[in-house]
Amino acid sequence: LEREFKTTRSCRERGIRIPEDLAVVGVDNNRISKYITPTLSTVNQPKYTMGALIVEKLIDSMNEDQFSDRRVFKVDSELLVRSSSSFQRNSS
Q: Which H or E run includes 2?
């Protein structure tokens, strides 16, 4: 979240308007993201599901003869659109 704070502050200092000139989106859906100004659009990742999947695969790999360090896991994420990316331009 620190990176997003620095980005929004830097934009304000340079006269760049969020979201009119630049959309800002964070990752991890930090609780504070909905209380800062403008409220921060973010990607909500299922951390519990991700952790459980990793532990399950780690246990599976300990039971295998060979350990593979190349594994791809896909989990569903959700984009939470808030005011930092929801500006709508006039179509004229």
A: helix 2-14
Residue extents of the structural domains in the chain:
2-80
CB contact set of 42 (below 8 Å; sequence gap of 6+): 25, 26, 27, 28, 29, 30, 33, 79, 80, 82
Q: pLDDT tens, 79-91?
A: 999 999 986 655 5
Please give the backbone phi and psi of residue 36, each rounded to the nearest 5 degrees, phi first: -85, 165
Q: What is the pLDDT of residues 36-72, one digit of tens each?
A: 889 999 999 999 999 999 898 888 888 876 666 677 7
CB 71 within 8 A of CB 56: no
One-letter-per-residue 3-state SS of 36-69: CCCCCEEEECCHHHHHHHHHHHHHHHHCCCCCCC
